[in-house]
Amino acid sequence: MVIILAMSFSAPLLTDHNPTETNMLMVEQPPSDEHILGTDGSGRDNWSRLLYGSRVSLIVGFSAMFFTVLIGVILGSLSGYYGGLVDAFYYEVYGSHFSTPFPCISLNYYVFS
Q1: d(C-alpha 4, C-alpha 81), whole Å
Q2: Whether the Cβ atoms of residue 40 and residue 23 lie closer than 8 Å to each other
Q3: What's the pLDDT at 60?
Q4: Are the C-beta atoms of 54 and 8 separated by less than 8 Å?
Q5: Residue 99 and residue 41: Cα distance in Å, rounded?
Q6: What is the pLDDT of residue 112?
Q7: CA-to-CA distance for 110 and 35, rounded, in angstroms?
Q8: CA nearest to 40, candidates 48, 112, 10
Q9: Splitting the chain (113 residues) into consecutive groups of 10 residues, what average pLDDT does each group show?
Q10: DSSP letters for 47-74
């Protein structure tokens, strides 16, 4: 994971190509010395797109993880501190969420949204 993080955030040092720059003369080229992973249908370098795209994916993933942990810590702290009805409420919400089969949740989401 450390290697992936290091490579994604040092993308400008690892590639000379702009990930959004198109070159219609280099459409769908195989891997070569100039383009390590070749090019796509628009002539963009796949290696640079992979490196720059991983930045966004990692930021989204770590942000989702951070906010999930933050919400869990806050709710767990409130439940542990107050106990009683607050703890029972969180326990019932948690239990009902994980005891409901996924297709039922998906169907409710589809019907009510």
Answers
A1: 39
A2: no
A3: 95
A4: yes
A5: 46
A6: 86
A7: 44
A8: 48
A9: 91 91 92 93 94 93 96 92 89 81 82 83
A10: HHHHHHHHHHHHHHHHHHHHHHHHHHHH
What are the structure tokens assigned to 55, written together?
């930045």
Q: Which of 37, 32, 1 is nearest to 19 (CA)?
A: 37
Q: What is the residue type of 11?
A: A
pTM for the whole structure:
0.69
Q: What is the pLDDT of residue 68?
A: 95
Question: Is-contact 49 11, C-beta < 8 A?
Answer: no
Q: For residues 41 and 57, is the Cβ–Cβ distance under 8 A?
A: no
DSSP string covering the chain, please? -HHHHHHHHTHHHH--S-TT---GGGTTPPP-SSSTT-B-TTS-BHHHHHHHHHHHHHHHHHHHHHHHHHHHHHHHHHHHHH-HHHHHHHHHHHHHHHHS-HHHHHHHHHHH-
What CA–CA distances, in Å, run from 49 to 27, 57, 60, 64? Answer: 15, 12, 17, 23
